Protein backbone atom coordinates (compact mmCIF):
# COMPACT_ATOMS: atom_id res chain seq x y z
CA UNK A 1 0.00 0.00 0.00
CA UNK A 2 1.11 3.51 -0.69
CA UNK A 3 0.71 6.27 1.85
CA UNK A 4 1.37 10.00 2.02
CA UNK A 5 1.58 11.82 5.33
CA UNK A 6 1.47 15.55 5.95
CA UNK A 7 2.03 16.13 9.63
CA UNK A 8 1.29 19.86 9.64
CA UNK A 9 -2.47 20.52 9.49
CA UNK A 10 -1.87 24.29 9.51
CA UNK A 11 1.02 26.61 8.88
CA UNK A 12 1.32 30.37 8.78
CA UNK A 13 3.99 32.72 7.49
CA UNK A 14 4.55 36.43 7.17
CA UNK A 15 4.25 37.86 3.72
CA UNK A 16 7.60 37.90 1.88
CA UNK A 17 9.10 35.27 4.15
CA UNK A 18 9.89 31.62 3.45
CA UNK A 19 7.91 28.61 4.60
CA UNK A 20 8.46 24.87 4.28
CA UNK A 21 5.68 22.30 4.17
CA UNK A 22 6.54 18.74 5.11
CA UNK A 23 5.54 15.50 3.45
CA UNK A 24 6.62 11.92 3.90
CA UNK A 25 5.53 8.96 1.84
CA UNK A 26 5.82 5.24 1.59
CA UNK A 27 5.89 3.04 -1.47
CA UNK A 28 7.58 -0.20 -2.38
CA UNK A 29 7.92 0.81 -6.02
CA UNK A 30 11.00 2.36 -7.52
CA UNK A 31 9.29 4.26 -10.35
CA UNK A 32 7.02 7.01 -9.09
CA UNK A 33 6.20 10.70 -9.24
CA UNK A 34 5.62 13.13 -6.38
CA UNK A 35 3.46 16.22 -6.62
CA UNK A 36 2.44 19.26 -4.66
CA UNK A 37 -1.03 20.58 -5.44
CA UNK A 38 -2.56 23.83 -4.26
CA UNK A 39 -6.29 24.16 -3.55
CA UNK A 40 -7.34 27.78 -3.02
CA UNK A 41 -10.79 28.76 -1.68
CA UNK A 42 -12.20 28.27 -5.18
CA UNK A 43 -11.36 24.56 -4.66
CA UNK A 44 -9.75 24.26 -8.09
CA UNK A 45 -6.78 21.91 -7.79
CA UNK A 46 -3.64 23.51 -9.19
CA UNK A 47 -0.38 21.66 -9.81
CA UNK A 48 2.45 23.50 -8.09
CA UNK A 49 5.43 21.27 -8.75
CA UNK A 50 6.33 17.74 -9.79
CA UNK A 51 9.32 15.53 -9.05
CA UNK A 52 10.31 12.34 -10.83
CA UNK A 53 11.76 9.82 -8.38
CA UNK A 54 14.59 8.88 -10.71
CA UNK A 55 15.87 12.45 -10.83
CA UNK A 56 18.30 13.42 -8.11
CA UNK A 57 18.01 17.13 -8.80
CA UNK A 58 15.31 18.89 -6.82
CA UNK A 59 12.54 20.42 -8.91
CA UNK A 60 12.09 24.19 -8.92
CA UNK A 61 9.29 26.38 -10.26
CA UNK A 62 9.93 30.07 -9.67
CA UNK A 63 9.36 30.67 -5.92
CA UNK A 64 8.53 27.02 -5.28
CA UNK A 65 11.13 24.34 -4.75
CA UNK A 66 11.26 20.89 -3.23
CA UNK A 67 13.69 19.03 -1.04
CA UNK A 68 13.44 15.44 -2.22
CA UNK A 69 15.17 12.97 0.08
CA UNK A 70 14.56 9.61 -1.55
CA UNK A 71 16.18 7.43 1.09
CA UNK A 72 14.21 9.14 3.83
CA UNK A 73 11.06 9.17 1.66
CA UNK A 74 10.64 12.85 2.34
CA UNK A 75 9.35 15.48 -0.09
CA UNK A 76 9.04 18.97 1.40
CA UNK A 77 7.89 22.11 -0.40
CA UNK A 78 9.61 25.44 0.13
CA UNK A 79 7.80 28.63 -0.77
CA UNK A 80 10.06 31.67 -0.96
CA UNK A 81 8.92 35.30 -0.83
CA UNK A 82 5.43 34.24 0.27
CA UNK A 83 2.58 36.18 -1.28
CA UNK A 84 -1.02 36.64 -0.16
CA UNK A 85 -2.13 34.60 -3.16
CA UNK A 86 -0.23 31.59 -1.84
CA UNK A 87 -2.82 31.13 0.90
CA UNK A 88 -4.48 27.78 0.25
CA UNK A 89 -4.62 24.11 1.17
CA UNK A 90 -1.54 22.30 -0.06
CA UNK A 91 -1.66 18.60 -0.81
CA UNK A 92 1.30 16.31 -1.31
CA UNK A 93 0.59 13.39 -3.63
CA UNK A 94 2.28 10.26 -4.95
CA UNK A 95 1.68 8.24 -8.07
CA UNK A 96 3.58 5.08 -8.88
CA UNK A 97 4.02 3.33 -12.17
CA UNK A 98 2.25 0.29 -10.82
CA UNK A 99 -0.77 1.92 -9.20
CA UNK A 100 -1.40 4.51 -11.92
CA UNK A 101 -3.39 6.68 -9.53
CA UNK A 102 -2.76 9.55 -7.14
CA UNK A 103 -2.61 9.08 -3.40
CA UNK A 104 -3.01 12.33 -1.48
CA UNK A 105 -1.83 13.43 1.92
CA UNK A 106 -4.16 15.00 4.44
CA UNK A 107 -3.28 18.53 3.41
CA UNK A 108 -1.73 21.58 5.08
CA UNK A 109 -3.63 24.83 5.30
CA UNK A 110 -1.25 27.72 4.68
CA UNK A 111 -2.11 31.19 5.92
CA UNK A 112 -0.14 34.25 4.80
CA UNK A 113 -0.06 37.09 7.29
CA UNK A 114 0.23 40.57 5.75
CA UNK B 1 -4.53 24.24 -22.77
CA UNK B 2 -5.50 21.15 -20.78
CA UNK B 3 -8.80 22.44 -19.44
CA UNK B 4 -11.32 20.22 -17.70
CA UNK B 5 -14.86 21.39 -17.03
CA UNK B 6 -17.57 20.04 -14.77
CA UNK B 7 -21.27 20.59 -14.90
CA UNK B 8 -23.13 21.52 -12.85
CA UNK B 9 -20.96 23.42 -10.39
CA UNK B 10 -23.65 23.14 -7.74
CA UNK B 11 -26.69 20.93 -7.50
CA UNK B 12 -29.35 20.38 -4.89
CA UNK B 13 -31.54 17.32 -5.12
CA UNK B 14 -34.10 15.59 -2.99
CA UNK B 15 -33.39 12.38 -1.15
CA UNK B 16 -34.17 9.36 -3.31
CA UNK B 17 -33.57 11.04 -6.64
CA UNK B 18 -30.61 10.60 -8.97
CA UNK B 19 -28.22 13.27 -10.15
CA UNK B 20 -25.70 13.27 -12.98
CA UNK B 21 -22.42 15.16 -13.01
CA UNK B 22 -20.52 15.67 -16.26
CA UNK B 23 -16.77 15.96 -16.68
CA UNK B 24 -15.37 17.15 -19.99
CA UNK B 25 -11.86 17.59 -21.31
CA UNK B 26 -12.17 20.68 -23.50
CA UNK B 27 -8.98 20.72 -25.52
CA UNK B 28 -7.50 17.25 -25.31
CA UNK B 29 -8.52 13.62 -25.46
CA UNK B 30 -8.64 11.98 -22.08
CA UNK B 31 -7.84 8.30 -22.15
CA UNK B 32 -8.35 8.10 -18.40
CA UNK B 33 -10.60 10.04 -16.08
CA UNK B 34 -10.75 9.94 -12.32
CA UNK B 35 -13.52 10.76 -9.88
CA UNK B 36 -12.77 12.02 -6.37
CA UNK B 37 -14.84 12.91 -3.38
CA UNK B 38 -13.80 15.57 -0.90
CA UNK B 39 -15.45 16.11 2.46
CA UNK B 40 -15.11 19.51 4.19
CA UNK B 41 -11.59 20.21 5.39
CA UNK B 42 -10.42 16.80 4.21
CA UNK B 43 -8.31 15.42 1.44
CA UNK B 44 -9.39 14.03 -1.91
CA UNK B 45 -10.51 10.43 -1.88
CA UNK B 46 -10.36 8.54 -5.16
CA UNK B 47 -13.67 6.89 -5.95
CA UNK B 48 -12.98 5.32 -9.32
CA UNK B 49 -10.85 5.33 -12.43
CA UNK B 50 -12.46 5.14 -15.85
CA UNK B 51 -10.91 4.41 -19.20
CA UNK B 52 -12.73 5.30 -22.39
CA UNK B 53 -14.88 2.48 -23.63
CA UNK B 54 -14.40 0.18 -20.65
CA UNK B 55 -15.92 -0.29 -17.24
CA UNK B 56 -14.76 1.87 -14.39
CA UNK B 57 -12.50 0.50 -11.68
CA UNK B 58 -13.88 1.36 -8.27
CA UNK B 59 -11.86 1.81 -5.12
CA UNK B 60 -12.53 -0.40 -2.17
CA UNK B 61 -15.60 0.67 -0.24
CA UNK B 62 -17.18 2.63 -3.09
CA UNK B 63 -20.56 1.26 -4.11
CA UNK B 64 -20.52 0.81 -7.87
CA UNK B 65 -24.31 0.51 -8.06
CA UNK B 66 -24.73 3.81 -6.27
CA UNK B 67 -22.06 5.77 -8.12
CA UNK B 68 -22.44 4.94 -11.79
CA UNK B 69 -19.57 6.06 -13.97
CA UNK B 70 -19.67 6.19 -17.74
CA UNK B 71 -16.76 7.17 -19.97
CA UNK B 72 -18.39 6.94 -23.36
CA UNK B 73 -16.03 9.18 -25.28
CA UNK B 74 -12.51 10.53 -25.05
CA UNK B 75 -13.80 13.89 -23.84
CA UNK B 76 -16.69 13.03 -21.56
CA UNK B 77 -17.19 11.07 -18.36
CA UNK B 78 -20.29 11.14 -16.20
CA UNK B 79 -20.90 10.28 -12.57
CA UNK B 80 -24.47 9.46 -11.61
CA UNK B 81 -25.35 9.33 -7.95
CA UNK B 82 -28.37 7.07 -7.77
CA UNK B 83 -31.01 7.22 -5.03
CA UNK B 84 -29.10 9.99 -3.34
CA UNK B 85 -29.20 10.39 0.41
CA UNK B 86 -28.02 13.27 2.63
CA UNK B 87 -24.79 11.40 3.42
CA UNK B 88 -23.91 11.60 -0.28
CA UNK B 89 -23.68 15.37 0.04
CA UNK B 90 -20.11 16.25 -0.77
CA UNK B 91 -17.77 17.94 -3.20
CA UNK B 92 -17.06 15.79 -6.26
CA UNK B 93 -14.00 16.45 -8.39
CA UNK B 94 -13.01 14.86 -11.67
CA UNK B 95 -9.63 14.82 -13.35
CA UNK B 96 -8.40 13.69 -16.73
CA UNK B 97 -5.18 12.31 -18.07
CA UNK B 98 -4.01 12.68 -21.64
CA UNK B 99 -2.49 9.55 -23.06
CA UNK B 100 -0.78 6.79 -21.14
CA UNK B 101 2.72 8.20 -20.87
CA UNK B 102 1.91 11.30 -18.86
CA UNK B 103 1.60 11.27 -15.11
CA UNK B 104 -0.12 14.62 -14.99
CA UNK B 105 -3.81 14.87 -14.18
CA UNK B 106 -5.84 17.94 -15.04
CA UNK B 107 -8.55 18.70 -12.53
CA UNK B 108 -12.05 20.03 -13.03
CA UNK B 109 -13.41 22.80 -10.81
CA UNK B 110 -15.61 20.42 -8.83
CA UNK B 111 -19.32 19.97 -8.18
CA UNK B 112 -20.97 20.61 -4.85
CA UNK B 113 -23.82 18.17 -4.31
CA UNK B 114 -26.36 18.80 -1.57
CA UNK B 115 -29.03 16.19 -0.90
CA UNK B 116 -31.99 17.40 1.13
Question: Can you give a write-up of this model?
Answer:
- With 114 residues, chain A is an all-beta fold.
- Chain A has strands spanning 3-5, 10-14, 19-21, 24-26, 32-39, 46-52, 60-61, 64-69, 74-79, 88-96, 102-104, 108-113.
- Chain A is 0% helix and 54% strand.
- In chain A, strand 10 and strand 11 form a beta hairpin.
- Chain A is globular.
- Chain B is globular, with a radius of gyration of 13 Å.
- Chain B has strands at residues 4-7, 10-13, 19-25, 30-38, 44-51, 57-58, 67-73, 76-81, 90-98, 106-107, 111-115.
- Chain B is mostly beta strands.
- The chains are: A mainly beta (114), B mainly beta (116).
- At the A-B interface, strand 6 and strand 11 of A face strand 4, strand 5 and strand 9 of B.
Describe the secondary-structure layout.
The complex is a heterodimer of chains A (114) and B (116).
Chain A: E1 3-5, E2 10-14, E3 19-21, E4 24-26, E5 32-39, E6 46-52, E7 60-61, E8 64-69, E9 74-79, E10 88-96, E11 102-104, E12 108-113
Parallel strand pairs in A: 2-12
Antiparallel strand pairs in A: 1-4, 3-9, 5-6, 5-10, 7-8, 8-9, 10-11, 10-12
Chain B: E1 4-7, E2 10-13, E3 19-25, E4 30-38, E5 44-51, E6 57-58, E7 67-73, E8 76-81, E9 90-98, E10 106-107, E11 111-115
Parallel strand pairs in B: 2-11
Antiparallel strand pairs in B: 1-3, 3-8, 4-5, 4-9, 5-6, 7-8, 9-10, 9-11
Gist of the model:
The complex is a heterodimer of chains A (114) and B (116). Chain A has 114 residues and is an all-beta fold. Chain A has strands at 3-5, 10-14, 19-21, 24-26, 32-39, 46-52, 60-61, 64-69, 74-79, 88-96, 102-104, 108-113.
Total beta-strand segments of chain B: 11
Strand content of chain B: over 45%
Choose one word for the global shape of chain B.
Answer: globular
Major beta-sheet overview of chain B: 7 strands, mixed
Q: What is the mean predicted local confidence, pLDDT of chain B?
A: 93
Q: What's the total count of β strands of chain A?
A: 12
Low-confidence stretches of chain B: none
